[in-house]
Amino acid sequence: MMNMDISVTPNYSYIFDFENDFIHQRTRKWMVENWTWVFYYCGIYMLVIFGGQHFMQNRPRFQLRGPLIIWNTMLSMFSIMGAFRTAPELIHVLRHYGLFHSVCVPSYIEQDRVCGFWTWLFVLSKLPELGDTIFIVLRKQPLIFLHWYHHITVLIYSWFSYTEYTSSARWFIVMNYFVHSVMYSYYALKAARYNPPRFIAMLITSLQLTQMIVGCAINVWAHGFLKTHGPQSCNISQTNINLSIAMYFSYFVLFARFFYKTYLSPDGNKIRRMAASLAAQNTAKLSTNSNGDDGNRNANNKKLDINADLTMANHMHKAKAQ
């Protein structure tokens, strides 16, 4: 039998056994005892990516198209499932209990096993998501500051917040799952050589910017609730609020700068036009030489890969948002 307080949980149409078996006390105990290991993971991550860049400096790039398709597809499916399993709780709480509950009461973990389970998976997933950068390094794509800074800070903040059962995190988790479900689906299609309309890339960055604005607003509300209702009534520490708002504001600045340079600046438009022109020329060559030998086709395929990667790198880099 389910042991959930139905007054603060949505009416799930189906609950999996692994969700029903979730016991939040055990996961919190483990995280309290082990969360500082995240600093070692980040140190190893930095050594691997920058050491990897040095290692690849005078070596040919890897294509990795097949593994990249699988990687992005898996992450998109995980994010879609996470969004579907956590968003109903946030919507239910907002409709029946209001903003204060959504920001200050951690019922999404303590009283909702479905949302609690996917919150736990969300926190853990920030570690394997570091693998995004491995593809960038091995494929010799530009590794921008926003990408690795975002990965590290989200990982540290997520693990730290789980030790406190930060109540406002329900907002951050739902937003992140939703944005990632769109973003990783987009990257899976790009890796498979489909070409979604350009506005999709702009939409994803716009969603990320919106996410940062909402994140800052939630922290401002949390600070106000702490002042008006007292620390005992709102399950979020002032330290957590300070860290979170600094993180979200820095993300907003970096994503806004990225958006301008990629989509609005004259240099960005020039690069995109050049990449599109080169890709079109190579596509024409492939069509003309469709009856040629395998060597010519392989050479043209390599040119297409390079130009497709250039286009994707200038549309949007793999920088996720929490």
From TrEMBL:
PROSITE patterns: ELO. InterPro entries: ELO_CS, ELO_fam. It comes from the Eukaryota. GO terms for cellular component: endoplasmic reticulum membrane. Its main location: membrane. The chain crosses the membrane at residues 38-56, 68-87, 145-162, 168-187, 199-221, 241-260. It is a multi-pass membrane protein. GO terms for biological process: fatty acid elongation, monounsaturated fatty acid; fatty acid elongation, polyunsaturated fatty acid; fatty acid elongation, saturated fatty acid; sphingolipid biosynthetic process; very long-chain fatty acid biosynthetic process. It is found in: Membrane. GO terms for molecular function: fatty acid elongase activity. Pfam families: ELO (PF01151). Its EC number is 2.3.1.199. It catalyses: a very-long-chain acyl-CoA + malonyl-CoA + H(+) = a very-long-chain 3-oxoacyl-CoA + CO2 + CoA. Keywords: Fatty acid biosynthesis, Fatty acid metabolism, Lipid biosynthesis, Lipid metabolism, Membrane, Transferase, Transmembrane, Transmembrane helix. Belongs to the ELO family. This is Elongation of very long chain fatty acids protein. It comes from Glossina morsitans morsitans.
